[in-house]
Sequence to fold (568 residues):
Amino acid sequence: MFDTLPTHYQDAFDWDWEQWHPYFETLNNTVVTEDNVVRWLQDCDTLKRLVYEVRTRLYVATNVDTTDDDADARLKNFMRKVNPHVQQQFSMLDKKLVASGAAPDAIKVPLRNIEASLKIFTDDNLALQTRLSELQTAYNKLSGARTVEWEGEDVPIAQLRKVLQSPDRDLRKKAFFTMNERLRQDREAVNTIWEEMVDLRQQLATNAGLDNYRQYAWLNKNRHDYSPEEALEFTEAVAEVAVPADTRRMEKIRTALAYDTFYAWDTNANPDGAEPLKAYDEIEELIETTASIFQQIDPDLGAQFGIMQAEGLLDLDNRKGKAPGGYMTYFAQAERPFIFMNATGLAGDITVLLHEGGHAFHGFATQHVEFTAQRDVPSEFAEVAAMAMELLAFPYLTKDKGGFFDDADAARYKIDHLNRIIRLLPSIAMIVEFQHWVYTHLDAARNTENCDNKWFAIHQKYRPHIDITGYEDDIAGSWRQVIHLFSYPFYYIEYGLAQLGAIQVWANAKENQATALAAYREALALGGTVTLPELYAAAGAKLAFDAETMGAAIALVEVSLKEFETSQ
Ligand SMILES: [Zn+2]
Fold:
């Protein structure tokens, strides 16, 4: 029966649920045993690949042209009339597979995700989740509606973030306090959302038979290979080695500016008033130059990027009518990655394309897996694939290597990038530590005054170089602007862990690029078939939470910074 499914997604573009339904029914009516499980899974996958391909193509079509009304109508129709059934049916099939006990060894590891989602699923939680997403919408609405008066005009508060980069210190200070005055007006409204949110999250956990929401989030995020305690060990390592490095970085800027002290409105300053770094003029230049970089990193990866070029799988230029943002997605039936972004000629575009390129190579590496479940890569490792590419490109950025920049600009690009790594780690740790406290001290955290005190203490721990005298209350209340806490609870540590992995891959490549790349590609090809520590190990790295590993990574970053600074 499954050989009658369309082999081209366009033939299923306008299918309604009645056309999909018989295939699901056949799968659901099969008694799964060890004898037929492989065949049954293959049929599931044939169906899954087509459904995913249709859904992804429909979504991409609305992104590449937001004025395409046909594409918009098709996507809406699919999301309303087909997708809810499809989701529900696939989860029934998952349940069936787990209950059969016949799952082949090849998907034992990814099967842990299904088992976890079954463990936390209860009907009672559906209504709670709906309410939570309403609260998230309310929170976003509050954020989006904020305007301030600036230079005689009513402007969205987000525009003042640009002013915080101004070389004019007084202007930055004024922007900082203008923003905070406006933010204070929303405190009560945010508090109300928060109080209901944390209670709802606790209730989700209770309904699933768990003690607290942290346990729930761990299962929900498929964190089978590391514990909450290890996550906290990671934050302590940040405090021990990344915070001092961040302080050294800030001290350098402070000294250069001849400031006595460093305030919150100084941290994003662009002191020399330099314009953002330009990288290229035409989009073809971005593509060709990046292609040559990938080619030099690894010829096979270069060839894969060549396939993307040849087959129209890169939509990179910023143009009218295109949706914002950047991402890599995968066409499951065609077995091809696709990169979408909005490039405008700035150096940051290179980072985005290298990053999404790393994700795309992951797609190629897992192209021919036997079962689609084997392609479920945990984001703690998927981001290693992407972030490592950003660093592996370093030796090929200069014009003499076919790259984008003269020596001085290449140095500036690399310095920016490494500084951002050092800055990111404390931000991640702050958010991680705060949430661990919230969901294991709910009685205290329900009271937003306690949250202010906790956030203040965390700020002092991770941002000791910022003088907060006289505006302590603005700092204490600033957790209310952290969207992760409201919309993406417990999400973020993935990037910290992966950055540490990426730096280790980069360190290996500095020793021997061919060996490092071989390990990297071998790890990518494993998909999600082995555990997280095994994926890192295969890539020649260690999934690490300890200060020693982080210290070595930070030391490499700092040594490299010095090297690039002297070549500037
Ligand atoms: Zn990514």
The beta strands are 147-150, 153-156, 314-317, 327-331, 336-343. The two ends are 65 Å apart (CA to CA).
